[in-house]
Amino acid sequence: MNYSLWVGSYAKKDEPGIYKVGIDLDSEKIQVMDRFRGAENPSFLAEADGFLYAASESMEGKAVLFQIDEDGLALKGTADAGDMAPCHIYAEGKSAWTANYGGSVTKFERDGDSIEKAAFSKREGSGPNQERQDAPHVHSVTPFPDGLHLLVCDLGTDTLAVYEKTKLELVKEVKTAPGSGPRMALFHPEMPVVYVMNELDSTVSVYKTGQNGDITHLDTIESLPADYSGKHTGADLQFSPDRRFLYASIRGWDGFAVFDIEGEGALSQPRHVAGSGKTPRCFYVLPDAPYLIAAYQDSNKVTLFKLEANGLPVFTGSEVTISAPVCVIMKGAN
């Protein structure tokens, strides 16, 4: 069985920054199929309705629109985000939203094969970590299952902010632990639970979700091995295909924490697996096959893991060279 993925990376505009990657599960091999230019630092990608959107993580701050065609990707346009360093993007239908590390959220609308800014919300505040929390630093924007709201992780102010999707009106805010730095959110598809990866303390928090964007904190669990005392920053979260396990990538330690998902979405204490490179950023788990694909930014490679029956990822030995990879998503999945 074969799969195609998109990989976003840090690259100059005239250098390949978006990669099409193929996986052959029969041979457990991963390979680069094509490379595309046209966006500076397309660090995060999202696909919707035959278009690929890239968050251009640059000082200028842009969203870049590509049309997916038989030849690969055709650059169609860009739009200013209104702030620096868009570092995460979500898209559905003709709309896309970026989380801007400069401290804001931007909504874009696509009209045919052009894109323009439609709404913008600037945040305020700071946190106790003077080096990393001097100001708002929005790191991700994730849709609620209700289709009406967005959950925004503001690393700089230790805040989970809930926005109405259409006009980016702020609905409510929930504070996280001081200095935790919420980075990424992942909603459980079957239970009213959302998990949050906290970057600065490398913990994973569990929240109960309710109507009208309600979220209530239930638990926070350490993800690092007890005997590790070096530098660390939490990165990403993904489920196993059967939703029995939750995976967290942690940079610095450079491994994966594996949590069992228990009754009502509670998490076990994690097991730990060493990675196969340096600085694991985002990773992707195939939806219907036990494989995990990880982007190792500082090792300049993307690697293929097989998930054992006990949930633990095992490196297959297959990897491809990609300069400073950051994001991995499925091609053809909106």
From TrEMBL:
Pfam families: Lactonase (PF10282). GO terms for molecular function: 6-phosphogluconolactonase activity. Coiled coil: none annotated. This is 6-phosphogluconolactonase. Gene3D superfamilies: YVTN repeat-like/Quinoprotein amine dehydrogenase. Belongs to the cycloisomerase 2 family. InterPro entries: Cycloisomerase_2 (IPR050282), Haem_d1_sf (IPR011048), Lactonase_7-beta_prop (IPR019405), WD40/YVTN_repeat-like_dom_sf (IPR015943).
